[in-house]
């Protein structure tokens, strides 16, 4: 049995070492063995927008890039304001509702906090 930690993303037990990195064969997530231990001790995750500003639940953000929606739902245009965001720990970090589109998930790299 391996003494390697499970994948922090999908919790798979089949991780393996690749040089200084640990790799999950199921979701292809890669992380540093030392960073994984330090991240678990640091506490809650800090979410940052594209400019490096710290995000919190309830913030208002604007979209910085045209985002095409899958399924032919249209396009969320640059400058669209999204109010009252909720941060979640998944691939898409923000759950929100956008007027005219409904509920959706966004990545923090495509938004900027409104100050």
Automatic annotation (TrEMBL):
InterPro entries: YjdM, YjdM_C, YjdM_N. Residues 48-114 form the Protein YjdM C-terminal domain. It holds the Pfam family YjdM. SUPFAM superfamilies: Prokaryotic SH3-related domain, Zinc beta-ribbon. Residues 4-32 form the Protein YjdM N-terminal domain. Belongs to the YjdM family. This is Protein YjdM. It comes from Duganella phyllosphaerae.
């Amino acid at each position: 049995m391996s003494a390697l930690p499970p994948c922090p993303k999908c919790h798979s037990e089949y991780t393996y070492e690749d040089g200084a990195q640990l790799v999950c064969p199921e979701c292809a997530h890669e992380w540093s063995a030392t960073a994984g231990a330090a991240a678990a001790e640091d506490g809650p995750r800090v979410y940052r927008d594209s400019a490096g500003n710290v995000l919190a639940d309830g913030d208002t953000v604007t979209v910085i890039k045209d985002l095409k929606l899958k399924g032919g739902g249209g396009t969320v245009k640059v400058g669209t304001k999204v109010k009252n965001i909720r941060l979640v720990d998944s691939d898409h970090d923000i759950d929100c509702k956008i007027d005219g589109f409904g509920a959706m998930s966004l990545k923090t790299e495509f938004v900027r906090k409104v100050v």
